[in-house]
């Protein structure tokens, strides 16, 4: 039996992973499941899958989790430290599906124990790419991509030589506001930004898709994961979300990966890698679809892409700054304190302030520095929000 853990088990990716495990329960020995506020779901899955431990990220929810697990053999724990400890428990395969920078430290713990980390949490590579890759290498651990675009690139590269890769193209649906006039975007509401045309995902990544901050993070993730330069990575808007990524080679050939927009494909690929197994995802009917459209993203509509390219050029801690500023600006947008377009304005202002901060720009990429810079960038967002409101 394979020992597995799911970090962020109660979320969209976590539940899709649980769905696959539920279909073949005798194949897996579940070590740890973690969640946040959704205690009932966490306890229900931990009981059914007979996990060793269930952890909520919130310390004050420990009594609720204990009560929900009463009478079972599942241990209950809470708080970021318990989360990192659960990630460090010996396992063969661990799904990293916590949302945001909170996924970084548990992910590093998984790599330190030499397990395979199936990486949905793109923030891990955005905030600390070189550190994560070094940790994996030093501990003989494996990283497998779960983001659909990166899984697609990974699959297109099977048997290929990276020296022959000229470019990587990741696609973007264009999100909720793809067809809106630019002039209306300033008035976009949280509800409007929270509905995705093709994918069913958590609220934060859905809003990030509308602003293309999600694609911006994926640009950085591509650079870190596949070791290419930012100039080799392109973005194409592809409204049908059928082609997830393409790899162009030096002989002019291009390998495209296609599939229905269902995350269980990428999760299942990472779960069964290097094999392919039957997965419960819809099969493509291209004749029925009729056409696939592609066009270049409009940078005026999606400034996040330009910001991500600057971050890739700058390197170091700028990925952590970018992500933290984006997360905090998103919190403020969800709290209805700033408008949709102000998110990118504020993230740019934070990056500028970071660029002008002596001592930070060249600081080494350690976990302590990432955590410190992350906090600082969030307070800068708050400063800008207060300034703009005043
Ligand atoms: P969700 O918001 O649906 O789920 C997030 C998970 O993280 C939940 O289990 C949540 O717990 C938990 N969580 C929330 N805050 C914290 C915290 N501070 N510390 C620890 N755990 C926390 O997110 P998604 O599943 O949509 O996304 C997860 C990750 O996967 C993100 O990095 C996203 O970018 C990436 N991803 C998602 C895709 C998708 O289709 N959804 C596609 C590709 C990548 P609870 O819900 O109990 O509060």
Task: Write structural notes for this entry.
With 390 residues, this protein is α/β, with parallel strands linked by helices. It is built from 16 helices and eleven strands. The chain has a seven-stranded parallel sheet with strand order 4-3-2-1-5-6-7, sandwiched between helices. It has a four-stranded mixed sheet with strand order 9-8-10-11, covered by helices on one side. α1 (12-22) links the parallel β1 and β2. The mean pLDDT is 96. Bound molecules: NADPH dihydro-nicotinamide-adenine-dinucleotide phosphate. The site of NADPH dihydro-nicotinamide-adenine-dinucleotide phosphate has 28 residues, from α1 and α9.
Total helices: the number is: 16
Outline type: globular
Unreliable residue runs:
none
> What is the makeup of the main sheet?
7 strands, parallel
Number of domains: 3
The CATH class assignment of the largest domain is Alpha Beta
Write the CATH architecture name of the largest domain. 3-Layer(aba) Sandwich
Name the ligand types.
Answer: NADPH dihydro-nicotinamide-adenine-dinucleotide phosphate
Task: Note the run of SSEs as H and E.
Answer: EHEHEHEHEHEHEHEHHHEEEHHHHHH
How much helix is in the residues? Answer: 40-55%
The percent range for strand residues is 15-25%
CATH superfamily membership of the largest domain, which one? NAD(P)-binding Rossmann-like Domain
Q: Given the helix and strand composition, which structural class is it?
A: alpha/beta
Radius of gyration: 20 Å
Average pLDDT level: 96
